[in-house]
Amino acid sequence: MSQSLIKKTQSYRISNYEKEKLRNNYMGVYFLEISLNFIHGCVFVLSITLFVAVIFIVMRNYWFKCIHSDDFAMIKFLEMISE
Predict the structure, then answer these.
(1) Of the candidates 30, 29, 49, which has an alpha carbon nearest to the alpha carbon of residue 41?
(2) CA gap 18, 33 in Å, rounded
(3) Mean per-residue pLDDT for 5-25?
(4) What is this structure's pTM?
(5) pLDDT grade for 37, boundaries at 50, 70 and 90
């Protein structure tokens, strides 16, 4: 009787250990999933920010070229009229 009781308690301890091990593995996987989601969100936000910054820089250069070319054309036009 005592041998069967020892076996039952040992199997109970093993199953509790296995449950704790699985619980720890699950928490590790959950933490990994949260970390990967956070990293993915950061990469997404940074890529959109970079895209907007590149568009802003390209458009700013384009508008500066247009403004300067218009100023140059206006100066030439005024010189032509004043002559």
Answers:
(1) 49
(2) 22
(3) 67
(4) 0.48
(5) very high
User: What element of type H or E holds 16?
Assistant: helix 2-82
Place of tokens 């699985």: 22
pLDDT of residue 57 exceeding 90, the answer is no
The two structure tokens encoding residue 13:
């301890």
Long-range contacts of residues 31-38, Cβ cutoff 8 Å, at least 24 apart: none
Judge whether residue 45 has pLDDT over 90: yes
51, two tokens? 């895209």
The C-alpha atoms of residue 4 and residue 10 are separated, in whole angstroms, by 10
**Residue length of the chain:** 83
